[in-house]
Amino acid sequence: MSHLLRTRFSLIQKPLALAAATLLLSAIALPAAATNWWNPTPALTIGTASVNVRDKGALGNGVHDDTAAFQAAVNALPSTGGTVVVPPGTYMINALTSVRLRSKMRLQLDPLAQVKAIANSSDRYIMFKLWNLNNVEITGGQIIGERVAHVGTTGQWGYGVAIQGSSKVFVHDISISNCWGDGIFIGTATSGTTTVKASDVTLNQVVSTNNRRQGLSITPAQRVYVVNSTFTGQNGTAPQAGIDIEPGKLGATYVRIENSNLSSNVGNGLEMHAYVANLDVVGSTLKNNHGYGALSVSATFGNLVGNTFNQNGLAGVGLNSTTHDFAVVNNSITFNSTRYVSPTSTKGSATRDLSVASTTSNITLSGNLLTGQ
Q1: Do residues 204 and 261 both lie within one domain?
Q2: Which GO terms are recorded in the biological process aspect for this UniProt protein (predicted)?
Q3: Same domain, 142 and 213
């Protein structure tokens, strides 16, 4: 049987309303057990104590190394947790040492606070480390890496925030930029002899831009919710994606990207690799990426619903390799493949916008607006 016959395929000129798309989404691929696991403002258990980094010796003058003061403020919190307060200022952090956060704590940056990494030559670093923690919140201000002043030329693992083996993490209303690797990295940590995935991570109103490798990397994890966030302008070393979900055999399950902007990246807007399952991308914009708007390489059980894919260098949506059980429904996918076709031309085949390999299976295409329709 041909791939065209195996694929449930229908195209209409005008997308249905997003509300209808949401109903269709629930009917297509989302298991009942996963319904509404996400929350843009999750409830956390945070202690009542408060410590100001200035009281621990931070100067915030853009010159002094404030790493020890930040760590002292974290360590001063009681076992019940609390809030570390970062007032306005420019705080320099040694990312090779890292600031290690604790469970049941909030890192509260003033909107006028900048935390900058001190220049180094290392292949890898972490500015804020969340390893094997629970109930952690990071909010406010800016976290700025040192890619502009970086001395070395190798490596790709310099992170602004690393969430590994941690659960119930809420990062919101913050900007992360200029990291040697990824703005945010989500993945595993070891606890004794056990490898622990990150879980129940929410990113809301996060802006991650001009990082060298990725705006956000999701490796083995479960229940990651990205909403109202922006991942733009990643450039420097491959993959250079807005968001890259690449978990390996440990897998990444239940990832939802909603009302977010993954645009103007040198690589793809979104990459989804093998062992990614139960992924929803809803109401988001993926445009002007040099690669695909969204590319699946063997991801499974996914839904792309009500999004805009526009003027990407390759197809707006690419479903490749053994991708299966994927629904692409009620999206606007127009004027893509700009590396080969003028973005103002209405000509070209449907694969200009939507490319589905013959090796995929159980693909639903419905209600998508393509170029020239």
Answers
A1: no
A2: polysaccharide catabolic process
A3: yes
Residues 151 and 16 in one domain: no
**29 and 45, same domain (yes or no):** no
Q: What are 211-259's pLDDT values in tens digits? A: 999 999 999 999 999 999 999 999 999 999 999 999 999 999 999 999 9
pLDDT digits (tens, 9 = 90+) for 24-73: 444 444 443 446 899 999 999 999 999 999 999 999 999 999 999 999 99
If we measure between CA atoms, which residue out of 284, 176, 175, 158 comes closest to residue 227? 284
- Joined tokens for residue 314: 């390759």
pLDDT at 372: 87
Whether 139 has a pLDDT exceeding 90, the answer reads yes
Convert the chain into a string of H (helix), E (strand) and C (coil).
CCHHHHCEEECCCCCCCHHHHHHHHHHHCCCHHHCCCCCCCCCCCCCCEEEEHHHHCCCCEEEEECHHHHHHHHHHCCCCCEEEEECCEEEEECCCCCEECCCCEEEEECCCEEEEECCCCCCEEEEEEEECCEEEEEECCEEECCCCCCCCCCCCEEEEEEEECCEEEEEEEEEEECCCCEEEEEEEEEECCEEEEEEEEEEEEEEEECCCCEEEEECCEEEEEEECCEEECCCCCCCCEEEEECCHHHCEEEEEEECCECCCCCCCCEEECCCEEEEEEECCEEECCCCCCEEEECCEEEEEECCEEECCCCCCEEEECCCEEEEEECCEEECCCCCCCCCCCCCCCHHHCEEECCCCEEEEEECCEECCC
The closest of 238, 221, 225 to 181, measured between CA atoms, is 238
Domain count across the chain: 2
Asked if residue 270 and residue 210 are part of one domain, the reply reads no
Would you give the end-to-end CA distance of the chain in angstroms? Answer: 28
> Does one domain contain both 6 and 112?
no
What's the whole-model pTM score?
A: 0.92
CATH number for the domain harbouring residue 4: 2.160.20.10
Instruction: Report percent pLDDT > 70 for the chain.
Output: 91
